[in-house]
Amino acid sequence: MTQERKMARVLIVEARFYNHIADNLLRGVTTVLEAATVDIDIIVVPGLYEIPAALEFALESQRQGRISARYDGYVTLGCAIRGESDHYDHICTHAMRAIGDLSVAHRLALGNGVLTVHNEAQALVRSDPGRKDVGGMAARACLRMMEIKRDLML
């Protein structure tokens, strides 16, 4: 008798501050994850700053049994474009550090698809699934980290 393998489930935490860029990133992620036959849930947040909190909310809800979904992996998506003030630096530093800290502290299989760019043209190239495809790269990173976690933490 063969044991059926459970389908993996991934949570995408997506900042939709720039909708057209977010659409590209999400298209790249979903293409890769759907091809891998992974179930996907999405939480939408207003911007990069809110990604770590939403990730922590999901983790705490799982710990407390408030949600039935158990996620095998996580993908974070969003974009910050440098402006005229130092707000960009603060947001990028906070978001990236907090995402990394959560990933290590909770041993998450996480692919980070957060763009921090100087202008919209850079964001469009990096988010476009037909070009740099950072969303697809984040999904592939998540899948690989899920494999590594499964292999090392059994």
Question: Which terms would index this structure?
Answer:
154 residues; 20% strand; Rossmann fold; 5 helices; alpha/beta; globular; four-stranded parallel beta sheet
Beta-strand residue percentage:
15-25%
Q: What is the H/E order? A: EHEHEHEHH
Low-confidence stretches: none
Q: What is the strand tally?
A: 4
CATH class: Alpha Beta
The largest sheet, given as strand count, sense and whether it forms a barrel, is:
4 strands, parallel
Which percent range fits the helix content? 40-55%
Q: Which CATH architecture is right?
A: 3-Layer(aba) Sandwich
Query: How large, in whole angstroms, is the Cα Rg?
Result: 16 Å
Order of neighbouring strands in the sheet with most strands:
2-1-3-4
* Fold-level CATH name: Rossmann fold
Structural class per helix/strand content?
alpha/beta
The CA-CA distance between the termini, in Å, is: 21 Å
Q: What form results from the Cα inertia axes? A: globular
Number of domains: 1
How many helices? The count is 5
